[in-house]
Amino acid sequence: MDRFKIEGGRKLEGTVRISGAKNAALPAMAACLLTNEPVHLENIPHVRDIITMAKLLAHMRCRVGSPDIPPSSFTIQAETVSHAEAPYELVKTMRASVLTLGPLVARFGYARVSLPGGCAIGARPIDIHIQALEKLGAEITMEHGYVEARTKRLRGAEFRFPKITVTGTENVLTAAVLAEGETILENSALEPEVTDLAELLIKMGAKIEGVGTSTLRVHGVDRLHGATHTIIPDRIEAGTFLIAGAITGGELLLTNCEPAHLAAVIEKLKACGIDIRCEGGGKLRVRAAKKLVAGDVTTEEYPSFATDMQAQFMALATQANGVSHIRETIFENRFLHGSEMARMGANIVMDGNLAVVAGPTPLSGAPVTASDLRASAGLVLAGLVADNTTWIDRVYHIDRGYEQIEEKLRSVGARIERVTQP
Ligand code: EPU
User: Fold this and answer.
1) Closest C-alpha residue for ligand 1 atom 37
2) What are the residues whose beta carbons fall under 8 Å from the beta carbon of 399, sequence distance 6 or more?
3) Cα-Cα-Cα-Cα dihedral of 89, 95, 97, 101, to 10°?
4) Is 313's C-beta closer than 6 angstroms to any atom of ligand 1?
5) 20 to 30 Å CA-CA from 134: which of 46, 89, 106, 237?
6) Is 299 touching ligand 1 by the criterion CB < 6 Å?
């Protein structure tokens, strides 16, 4: 199992190219199941979840080709899918496998997908995905840990999401595009990854109105065709590097990003005293604060502050002057990194969904354990400012969603290495 060894205390300076968004690439890859023609996707990050999705599509007998190693583009052709099943072995390593349910049942009238279990950050049920697909006419049964969906053809319907769900919106949207008649989805997620998916679907021939709003109106079509699409930049990777530049007292230029998708994060970091400038052409420059001050953050759905940036903000708060209040409203158990940061000397008191961080506190290098993808990113940031050596265990979590993080950090001056244990 790999670990990271970080020698903290170095200012990060230089340029970092932001990769494509994992959470936009995954639904885009699943959407390739909707047509027998090839779909070409560009700006795909080389991360473990993408490899898992590629394996899953190959398991379903899709042709998945990538001209580059590591992949930054994929051509996926689901000409025949002889195996409309997402097995437990793959779903247990990546719950986004559930994104194949909607497209499979819409195109083939049948899908069998292992139920994802809970994960380190919360229970994460898929009851709303199922309710919506039932509303579209799918007959759904659950047996032996699998969801089975069957239909002759899905029918358009009106559905209001009782709670905003990102992959729920994506799953149902990719089903509705091939349903007969009109579907109206209310209280849909507004995340840029949903909009990116809708834009790909429109290129494939889908008829969708209201893209970028919470009401999506879909006129189902009989078939979709191939398309070429470039995945949006990863706003969470960009936000993580903004904090990396600021927390280490350095200066970074981030290229290939979409500042509009980071508005809430940029606003919050500026309020903490960090100098962030949009330089046009997808570039963001971050310079350390003259005096870093505490800030309060509540995670909420887009366009508010993303839960996927909460752990990284907590690392920053340990170095800020004053008391920061961090409230997590999306997932019920997303503070495990807080206990690890406390082991490094941070002053963090957690009570339910509220973490109160008093700073600044010097962090001292320690062995810590990553519990999920974004927690790992928070711990890497803490390690970059800690004295001596920080060892981070279970970095397979970070490999799920950050492309070459240690290479990118090293290229701007961090001392971080991957140590592979036999
Ligand atoms: N929820 C339900 N029932 C459902 C669906 C969701 O109760 O049927 C609840 C969840 O348990 C949670 C809330 O609704 O409390 C919101 O969850 P959502 O469905 O929006 O999350 P998700 O779609 O499973 C995606 C991202 C996550 C990100 C969240 C929130 C992907 C592949 N995953 O998850 O990303 O944290 O939206 O923005 O897009 C990550 O990249 O590290 C990550 C966890």
Assistant:
1) 166
2) 2, 47, 48
3) 110
4) no
5) 89
6) no
Q: Which residues contact 229 (CB under 8 A, 6 or more apart)?
A: 28, 39, 40, 41, 42, 199, 200, 203
CA distance 168 to 187: 11
Q: Ligand 1 centroid vs 121 CA: distance in angstroms? A: 10
- In angstroms, the CA 272 to CA 269 distance is 5
**Residue 179: which H helix or E strand, with range?**
none
Verify whether residue 32 is a known catalytic residue. no
pTM: 0.98
Whats the size of the chain, residue-wise? 422
Query: What is the token pair recorded at 321?
Result: 């002057």
Give Cα 18 distance to the centre of its chain.
14
CA atoms of 137 and 55, how far apart (whole Å): 29
pLDDT at residue 68, as a whole number = 75
Ligand 1 centroid from CA 201, angstroms: 21
At position 213, the amino acid (one-letter code) is T
Is 69's pLDDT higher than 80? no
Q: What is the pLDDT of residues 208-237, one digit of tens each?
A: 999 999 999 999 999 999 999 999 999 999
pLDDT digits (tens, 9 = 90+) for 252-271: 999 999 999 999 999 999 99
Under 8 Å between Cβ of 337 and 268: no
**What is the DSSP pairing of strand 85-86 with strand 110-114?**
parallel
Q: With bands split at pLDDT 50, 70 and 90, how would you rate the model's confidence at 81? A: confident
Instruction: Compute CA distances 137 → 62, 106, 154, 172, 388, whole Å.
Output: 26, 10, 5, 12, 59
Asked if the model's pLDDT at residue 70 lies above 80, the reply is no
Question: Which of these, 62, 116, 127, lies nearest to 88 by C-alpha position?
Answer: 116
| Dist. CA 286 → ligand 1 center (Å) | 29
Cα-Cα-Cα-Cα torsion 338, 342, 346, 350, nearest 10 degrees, comes to 50
Is the shortest distance between the CB of 163 and ligand 1 below 6 Å? yes
> According to the model, what pLDDT value does residue 113 have?
95
The bridge status of strand 63-65 relative to strand 73-77 is antiparallel
Could you read off the pLDDT of 121-158 as tens digits, one per residue?
A: 887 899 999 999 999 999 999 999 999 999 999 999 99
